[in-house]
Amino acid sequence: MYNVPLAMCNDDFLMERSVTVSQLHIPHSTLHTLMKGTDAMELSQEQYARMVQQASPSSSFAKDCFFAFLTGGLICTIGQVLTNIYQFTLGLSLPDARCFTSITLVATAAILTALSLYDNIAKFAGAGTLVPITGFANAIVAPAIEFKSEGLIMGLGAKMFVIAGPVIVFGTVSSILYGLLLYFTQL
Would you list the domain boundaries of the chain? Predict the structure, then answer.
């Protein structure tokens, strides 16, 4: 066990927490090399930053953009195919087909997140999985899955809206303000 400062919500606030080498995702030999000549209980911010930089994979900007574009486009194409199937095969109206498409994409992303498959897709695709509606579903389900061991109320229920809560609140307030603006400008 090593006590390492881990950044919390605010960069100015560092909290020490005991972690194992496996939780750091750094090979034991690398950690030993990095900490050579230092007290294992004290790790400076510079040493921690070096550890994070060594453990973080390097990536090509152009390649990341290409895969994000490809995956985001693929998700949107699947959405359009679903809309066409719902509209022309099942005979739904266009608004209903779009609604069912959204439901299908959100449910699929939630299931993939629960099965720990969405993270593997996101590693390959990068931001391409964040932009479509599937990224929102992942943002809601991932914290709930992570904290399910804390129970149904304090784990799943409370943590589900850690990321999505502000988005929902902002979206609701924005839509109300837009509606009021539209209402008063058309009087």
Answer: 2-55, 61-185
